[in-house]
Design a protein that fits this description.
By secondary structure, the chain is α+β, with helices and mostly antiparallel strands. The protein has 2 domains: about 1-40, no CATH class; about 45-145, no CATH class. About 15% of the residues lie in helices and about 30% in strands. It contains 4 helices and 8 strands, in the order H-E-E-E-E-H-E-E-E-E-H-H. The strands form 2 sheets. Strands 3-4-8-7-6-5 form a 6-stranded antiparallel sheet. The protein has a two-stranded antiparallel sheet with strand order 1-2. A hairpin with an 8-residue loop joins strand 6 (about 100-105) and strand 7. The longest helix is centred in the C-terminal third of the chain and has 9 residues, at about 135-145. The radius of gyration is 26 Å and the shape is extended.
């Protein structure tokens, strides 16, 4: 079990002491919490596999331009069958917002005022998008441009490819090999 307090908070402050005082652990190592007054559970869940990709936006090279022009970056993480608890680790300060036409949360506690850090859920998958160079509207427009694909298409596109074995062409005479009396 991991508990994070808000960033920059002093140790041993009363709300955290109240939370720890409300906990008990039995002989089977089961943690039970009788939440203090005015406390509620935001998210709970097991850790699942997370997939993270970072996009560098900009002008790709073409026949008139040999160099790609680096633009802003955006990092997107998704956790299929996951929970916000896994993505929001680290003392987030969340405000509810609407994002892509659905309820979401934005982290307003970042020390970097230009950081857009938004969390949302689509079906059973939770997502996080982060960018220091894009506005919330730009992040939404970028994500809205994605096209859904079947899992099989994703696996085919991003799985490890195995190159075909090259045919061995040799003009060498037969090479010596180990006889049956040598068993390495």
């Amino acid at each position: 079990m991991i508990i994070n307090d808000a960033p920059g908070q002093p140790l041993n402050r009363a709300p955290i002491i109240d939370l720890f005082s409300a906990m008990s652990i039995d002989l089977d190592a089961t943690v039970d919490i009788s939440l203090p007054t005015d406390w509620s559970v935001f998210s709970i869940g097991d850790s699942r596999t997370a997939y993270t990709v970072q996009f560098q936006l900009g002008t790709p090279p073409n026949d008139r331009n040999d160099d790609a022009e680096a633009g802003p970056s955006i990092r997107i993480t998704q956790v299929p069958d996951g929970s916000f608890a896994q993505l929001m680790f680290g003392g987030r300060q969340l405000d509810p917002i609407e994002f892509l036409g659905a309820p979401a949360f934005i982290d307003v506690g970042s020390p970097d005022p230009s950081l857009v850090n938004v969390f949302w859920q689509d079906d059973s998958t939770v997502f996080n998008a982060t960018s220091s160079a894009l506005s919330l509207d730009d992040v939404a427009a970028f994500i809205d441009s994605f096209e859904p694909v079947a899992i099989q298409d994703w696996n085919q596109r991003f799985s490890t490819s195995e190159p075909e074995l090259a045919a061995e062409a040799s003009d060498c005479a037969p090479q010596p090999n180990f006889g049956s009396t040598l068993d390495p």
